[in-house]
Every structure is written in C-alpha cells, then in structure tokens.
Amino acid sequence: MPMSFNLNVIEEFRANGGRVGGPFEGGDLLLLTTTGARSGRPHTVPLGYVRAEGLLLVVASAAGAPEHPQWYRNLLAHPAVRVELGTEAFDTVAVPAEGACRERLFAAVVRKAPGYGGYQAHTERELPVVVLERPEPPSGSPAPAARSLADKLLESHTWLRAQLRHVREEAHAHLPGRPATLGLQLRQHCLAFCDGLTHHHTGEDAAVFPALARSHPELADVLARLGEQHRAIGRIKEELVALLAGIAATEPERLRTELDRMSAELEAHLDFEEAELLPVLAGIPFPPTRPVPSGSAANEPARNGSAPNGSAPNEPARNGSAPNEPARNGSAPNEPARNKSAPNGSTSSGPTPGHG
Length: 356
Known about the structure:
Layout (H helix, E strand, L loop, with lengths): L2 H13 L13 E7 L6 E7 L1 E3 L2 E5 L10 H8 L2 E6 L2 E9 L2 H14 L2 H7 L7 E5 L15 H24 L11 H32 L4 H24 L8 H30 L75
Antiparallel strand pairs: 1-2, 1-5, 3-4, 4-7, 5-6, 6-7
Helix pairs in contact: 5-6, 5-8, 6-7, 7-8
C-alpha cells in the first residue's frame, strides 16, 4: 500500500482516541514510534497488538514477507520506543521473546489472532514476538509532579540509577553454565539505558550547563568537572554499545566488568552533580517561565517544556517525541489490527491477509 495509507491511519487514530474505520474498525491497533537504526529519526507505524499473559505484544510478521519489517530492525538498534494506545501514550522497552518463551507467546497470539499462524506458514523466518515492557516507577508508585528543575534532575537520576541496577542484576544472574549469549532481554535493557544516558547528558551539555555558566559564573569549575565526567562516562558507554552490537553473541564476563565500571563512575558523578547543582536548580521552577517584558501579562510556561534559554528538561529518552513520520520499507501497517475483537481482547479472525 502507498505510504499515504499509513499516514491516514495514524491521523485518524490520533484524531479519534485510537479508533479507526475501514479494514481495521473494531480491531486492536496501536501506534509504535521507533528511532531509525541509521537515520536516528522517529518513525511511526500502526500495528495490531495482542495481550497475553499480562503482556502487550506485537509480532513482526510483515504479512509473512521474507525479511523483517523496518520497525523491527529499528527497535533492535534503539529499544526505547513510544506506544500510543487509545488515548494513552507511554514509553516502553521493546524486548523480542526468545526460545521457549517465544514459542509459548506465539502460540497464545495465534489462538487470539489465527492469521499470524498463516503468516508464519508463508515464510521461512521465525516471526519475532516483541514484548513492549512498560517500566514501573522505581518506588512502585508514580513520582510526584516536578515543581523545580532540581526535582526534574532527581527524577532523571532516579531513572538512570534504577535502570543500571536492573541491567547489572540481569548480567550477574547470567551463570557460566548458560549459553554464550546473554540474550536479547539483557541486550535490549542495556541499550535502552545507554540511550537514556546519552539523551540526559546531551541535554545538559548543550543547554543546561551553558545556561548555568551564564547565570552562575561561580560554578565554572564545577561545570568543567561535570563535563569531564560526562566524557569519561561516555567512553564507557561506547564500549558497552560496541559489546552489544551483535545480536547473536557477546562476552558475558567483559560486559559485567564494564557494567560494574559504569556503575561506579555514574554513581560518583550523579552524587557530585546533585551536591553541587541541586541548591541552584531548586530555585528554578518547572516548567520554567520566560521573563516577562514590562507591561506584559503574567509569566507563562516556556513552549515545549523547555528549560532556561530553550534547553530541554533532562529526562530519560522519549523516542517519538519529535514529529512522527512513517516507517520506511513497509509503509502499510505491518501487522494489521485484528478485526472485530471479541471480549477480553480475543478475536474471531486473524490479521487481514494481504496487508502489512
């Protein structure tokens, strides 16, 4: 189908609270925004989804085509993805299921949407079943709304600490007797942490630190030291990403060593940054306000939630926040929504043949 078909479905979905008509009316449809593996740009596609075992699943079927759809290749490179479901939008980590878990989940998918079984029968490749994991708040409950940039910084640091701790626990749970590969789950979680760290430090280096240098020149030495720490942590991050470049194999012991080194460096950096910057950032409201010219109306929030001087608030990467564009190589919905879903997400028919 032409690329405009995807755009029309996306526009209709967003305009009608997740409801669309035509061949997908009454089906289970979501929008998935990935980051381009090569371009780094956001790409949005409408996909059918299935709920099974309490999990939100999408299948990279491409209607039984011989190659994986582009959105799947994107999420292997950048696991942090954005999901729009109904009127809700949220960030997830995309983790392809493996081995017995994949077989069990795919069987559950086919029971609810038999068309996927037909797609699998038409291709020699194993159709990936992707779990869209929605991270729980570290405390187990939603964090209070940020009222200052200090609150926003702590929110970002809490996320980074929790994600790194989770990844390290997964890595150290990998015993020597297991297969040589660490598995896609650990790989995806680790890459999502690296993406979040990059986003956070890029925002600080490009906007927050320069703004603080202008308004608080007494922080010059502190900001220079924080910049040096960013570069040191960045080198460790690049080594981690290089270790995870291959999907099939990696070096478990070396990865554990690099994660431990990252943890020590990052914890020291976050502690130092909080000690030095929180007192200053506590005086800057969030969302930030723009200076008001004499005689004008009261202060209003800066556009796009920007920090002082247009800098972006520091928070985990939210892929898909930029204007969305359709995915390449598969402009039609790759996994059409199941038509006429029955109660509890079940369906009497699978994906419409010939689409995707």
